[in-house]
Amino acid sequence: MSKIDYELNARIFKALSHPIRLQMIDVLSDDECCVTDVMNALKISQSTTSQHLLILKNSGIIYPEKHGTKTCYIVNNELSKEIITILKRNKNDK
Fold it and tell me: Of 7, 24, 94, 91, which Cα lies nearest the Cα of 61?
């Protein structure tokens, strides 16, 4: 039986405990996006976008990748993608 890393899972759930960050994972799950893409998709300011991306990055859910002068973000955590899938499925069940 494999041991569950409760500390890691708690950090992930804490990072995902804001509606904007859940939306960000939804947007980033399909493809990598730069900060501007995320801002435009969610219709939020650059500072708000950066603050939430930093929380997701520090929790290990996403990672940045440089493309010239742009920084793009990629979801690095399958659990986060699965949570979004479950939330979408739950929405359809109502």
Answer: 24
pLDDT mean across residues, the chain: 91
37 CB contacts (<8 Å, ≥6 apart)?
A: 27
How many domains, in total, are found in the chain?
1
Q: Once rounded to an integer, what is the mean pLDDT over residues 52-81?
A: 94
Q: Read off the pTM.
A: 0.87
* 50: nearest Cα among 32, 66, 34: 34
Q: In a 10 Å sphere around its CB, with 0-12 CB exposed, 13-18 middle and 19+ buried, how is residue 24 labelled?
A: buried
> Could you list the residue range(s) of the whole structural domain that residue 14 is in?
6-93
